């Protein structure tokens, strides 16, 4: 599997992976998988319009980081942001409602798949412009530093973002100012259709550039929620203590194409099947059972997740469409349509 031989194992001094925490991490992964699979099914039924970008196969990254966050920490996501939004506690019906353009959606159906935002849950937006949110995350971190607050900003992005100027500008700024921000590259080996390795001068597009900004090279198994959690916890501790930013490259894989319109025929034969042998959810389920956690507790999480998805689906189907009168609201600072000098 590409990248596995160079993964860095992280063993913290204080391992907080209690049984309760492991069950939480499993619940997050299962709920993300079930909700995103339902989003795909609803698309096939014509109930989700436009495109969307799923994280099927990448659930361990979102779960591991969310499990390590404290209340008040901030998440900055890409257009592939459903997983991170759900992981921060946003209800399923709010996410599915937004995808279905219903009035009960997170943003009343106006934002859609690529612009999920919930300030109440610390989700400070999903950004469709590649790399645009990295400098914004720096700004949020600078605010925390300036005011002496202890929240940490976490910025998630794909491997393709590492070849964007904003990536390098944000890293340099964060390193110079020792900002409490964590940059997380979800390296699923592909940009939109192009293998990242074909257009990048180094094997690991994020971690291999860390040294240029005085940061530690960190590459981890992004399909292992425990490893993601431990690495995230160490980075959060460092940031809160004034130690500055971290850059973490999580090796993972998306099971579907870049978006709904992509059949992913550019992938080599057998590559998907090889990665699915290390499916993050199946890997974690086996680990729970091996650790002595009963099958009943594991099945209860799985059944509860399906119940939540079914209930959310029915709620969204019954919800009204977004009303036309909100079309011109939330456009300018005063919430209206009028231009302001």
The CATH architecture classification is 3-Layer(aba) Sandwich
Domains (count)? 1
Sheet with the most strands: spatial strand order: 2-1-3-4-6-5
Sheet/helix structural class: alpha/beta
CATH class equals: Alpha Beta
Number of helices: 10
Helix coverage percent: 25-40%
| Beta-strand percent range | 5-15%
Q: Could you characterize the architecture of this molecule?
A:
By secondary structure, the protein is of the alpha/beta class. It has one domain: Thiamin diphosphate (ThDP)-binding fold, Pyr/PP domains (Rossmann fold). It has 10 helices and 6 strands. Strands 2-1-3-4-6-5 form a 6-stranded parallel sheet, with helices on both faces. Helix 1 packs antiparallel against helix 9, helix 1 packs parallel to helix 10 and helix 4 packs across helix 10. The longest helix is centred in the first third of the chain and has 26 residues. It is globular. The relative contact order is 0.17.
Write a brief caption for the model.
With 341 residues, the protein is α/β, with parallel strands linked by helices. The protein has ten helices and six strands, in the order ααβααβαβαββαβααα.
Descriptors:
341 residues, alpha/beta, Rossmann fold, disordered N terminus
């Amino acid at each position: 599997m590409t990248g596995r031989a160079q993964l860095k194992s992280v063993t913290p001094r204080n391992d907080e992976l209690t049984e309760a925490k492991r069950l939480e991490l499993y619940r997050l992964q299962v709920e993300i998988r079930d909700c995103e699979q339902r989003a795909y099914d609803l698309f096939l039924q014509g109930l989700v319009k436009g495109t969307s970008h799923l994280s099927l196969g990448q659930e361990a990254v979102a779960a591991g980081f969310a499990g390590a966050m404290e209340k008040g920490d901030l998440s900055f996501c890409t257009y592939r942001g459903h997983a991170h939004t759900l992981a921060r506690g946003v209800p399923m019906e709010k996410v599915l409602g937004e995808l279905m353009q219903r009035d009960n959606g997170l943003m009343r159906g106006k934002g859609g798949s690529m612009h999920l935002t919930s300030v109440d849950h610390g989700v400070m937006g999903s950004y469709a412009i590649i790399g645009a949110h990295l400098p914004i995350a720096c700004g949020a971190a600078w605010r925390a530093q300036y005011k002496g607050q202890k929240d940490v900003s976490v910025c998630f992005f794909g491997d393709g973002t590492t070849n964007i100027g904003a990536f390098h500008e944000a890293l340099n700024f964060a390193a110079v100012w020792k900002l409490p921000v964590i940059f997380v590259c979800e390296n699923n080996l592909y940009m939109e259709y192009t293998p990242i390795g074909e257009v990048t001068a180094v094997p690991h597009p994020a971690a291999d550039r860390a040294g240029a900004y005085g940061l530690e090279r960190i590459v981890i198994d992004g399909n292992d929620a425990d490893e993601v959690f431990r690495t995230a916890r160490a980075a959060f501790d460092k940031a809160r203590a004034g130690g500055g930013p971290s850059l973490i490259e999580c090796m993972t894989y998306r099971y579907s194409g870049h978006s709904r319109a992509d059949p992913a025929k550019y992938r080599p034969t057998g590559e998907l099947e090889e990665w699915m042998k290390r499916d993050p959810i199946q890997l974690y389920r086996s680990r729970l059972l091996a650790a002595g956690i009963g099958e009943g507790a594991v099945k209860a999480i799985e059944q509860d997740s399906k119940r939540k998805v079914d209930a959310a689906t029915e709620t969204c189907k019954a919800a009204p469409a977004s009303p036309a009168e909100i079309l011109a609201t939330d456009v300018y600072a005063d919430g209206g349509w009028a231009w302001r000098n």
